Amino acid sequence: MFFLPQLRERKIKPHLEKEKTFYQNMKIDQVESYQLQRFNKEWEKIQIHVDFYKNLVNKKEVPRAFDSFEQINELPIITRDFVSENIHLFTNKSKEADSFGTTGGSTGNPLQFPKWHSEAVHCEPSVWYVRDFYGVKRSDKMFRLWGHSHTLGKGLTRVKNKLKFDIGLPLIGFKRFSAYDLSEEKLKEAGEEILKFKPKYIIGYSKALFMLAKANEDKKEIFHQLNLKVVLGAAEGFERSEDREFVTEIFGCPVGLQYAAMETNYIAQTHPDGEYKVLWKNNILECVDDNGNPAETGRIILTSLYPRAFPLVRYELGDIISECKKDKHSVYSFKEVKGRDNDFLMLDDNTPIHSEGITHAIKFSDKIIAYQIRYTTNNIYTIYVKSKEKLMKQDIEEIRFRLKQVDERLAQLEIRQSQSLRQTVAGKTKWLVEE
C-alpha cells in the first residue's frame, strides 16, 4: 500500500515543481499579457472547431485574433442555462469526446458536457500546487466525505466502479465515505472510519464537514492526535464563519476552501493567509457588475486557457466573488465566494439528504434537462422532471432504482414529467422548493 502512493508522488513531483516555478517567477503585472497570449493560441482552434464562435468570427462580430484584454471583454457572456440548451454549438469538434460530465449543486438544471482525458492531466499539477499551501503531498492519505454517481446504477459498470472505490482507492491512500446520507448515525460511523484510516487530510462538502464535526464532537481530543494537515471544504461554502471555526476546533487543523465546478476543474483555493489564490495559468477570471462592467465585488466570469472539448469563453458560473485583486481586469485573488447553497432534503428530523445525492441519481440520462422537488409543509415530496422527450416507464424505474441506492425512502416519492419548473424572481430553477 505504501508503494503506490510513493510512486504517484514521484510521478507528480517534476510537474509540481514546474508549476511552483511558474507562479513564483511570473510577476502579478504580467498576468494579463500571459493570458492574452494563451487565449489567442486557444482561440485559433476554437474559431474553427466550435460552431458558436465560428459563426461569430464569420459574421465579423468578433476578431480572428485579440490585440488587447479589453477586446476579450467584449465577447458575449455565456450562461450555463444557454449552454445546456445548445451544447452542440459549444462542443469542440476537432476530436471525439472521451467522456461526459454533468454538473450538480443547488439548481435542478444539470449541464451535460463533453470532456477529454487530457484536461484532467493538464490540471492535475495545479491541484497539488494549491494543496501544497497546507503541506499536503500526493502520497498523503486522504479521507473524502463525498457523493459519487459512479457507484449508482446497474450491471457490470456499477460493479467495476464499486471495486474501484472500495478497493482501488484505498490502495493509493484514498478513503471515500458517502455524503448522501448525513444522519447522525452515519456521520458517527464516518468519524470511526477516520480514526481507523488515519488520514493526513480530509476533503468534503463544506456543510457536510460541519455536520461531521458536530456529530463527533466527543472525539475532539483523539482527532487532534491525528495531526491532520488540513480539512478542505468544497462544492459550497460554510453557512457561517463560526461553522468553519468549529471544524478547526474539532479536528485541530486549518480549514481551507476549494473553489471549482464540475465543468471548470480547479479555479482557486484558499491560502493560509486567508485569500483565495486563483489558478490564473489555466483560467482568466473576471469580476463584473450586473451590467457586465469590471467590479471589485460581483459576478464571476471564467475563460479557460487550455484545450478543452467544451471550451469556456466568458462563461458565467452564477457565483459572486468579493474584494478582488487584479492585474487591470484579470482577477488573481479574492476574499470570498458566495452563491452556492446546497440545501438538504429532510426525509425525517434526523436524516438530511445532500442535494448531490438527488442530482447524481436523476442526472444519469441525457433525456433529462432539469428537475425540481417540491414539498408541502408536512414534508410530502414530489419530483418533477423536465426532459427532451417523453420518459418511458423504464426511465422512471431507473430513476427510482438510483434513488433507492441513496435512501430507500426516496424511491417511494411520486415522479411527474413536466415541461415547466418553478423559477425564482431572478429566473433560476432551484432544485428544492416549498409548495
Characterization of the model:
The chain is an alpha/beta fold and 435 residues long. It is 35% helix and 25% strand. The protein has 13 helices and 22 strands. It has helices at residues 3-25, 31-49, 51-58, 69-72, 80-85, 117-131, 155-171, 184-197, 206-215, 220-224, 241-251, 355-362, 393-406, and strands at 78-79, 99-102, 112-115, 142-146, 174-178, 201-205, 230-234, 255-261, 265-270, 276-278, 283-288, 298-304, 315-322, 325-327, 330-334, 336-338, 344-348, 351-354, 368-375, 381-387, 414-417, 432-434. The strands form five sheets. The chain has a nine-stranded mixed β-sheet, with helices on both faces. Strands 1, 11, 12, 13 and 16 form a five-stranded mixed β-sheet that branches. A four-stranded mixed β-sheet has the order 21-20-19-22, with no helix packed on it.
Gist of the model:
The chain has 435 residues and is of the alpha/beta class.
What CATH calls the topology of the largest domain is Rossmann fold
- Please summarize the sheet with the most strands: 9 strands, mixed
Output the structural class. Answer: alpha/beta
| Approximate helicity band | 25-40%
> Which CATH architecture of the largest domain would you pick?
3-Layer(aba) Sandwich
**What percent strand?**
25-35%
Shape: globular
Going by CATH, the homologous superfamily of the largest domain would be ANL, N-terminal domain
Mean pLDDT: 88
Please report the number of helical segments. 13
The radius of gyration is 22 Å
What topology, given as strand order, has the largest sheet? 5-4-6-7-8-9-10-15-14
- C-alpha end-to-end distance: 52 Å
| Parts with pLDDT < 50 across at least 5 consecutive residues | none
| Overall CATH class of the largest domain | Alpha Beta
- The total domain count is 3
How many β-strand stretches?
Answer: 22
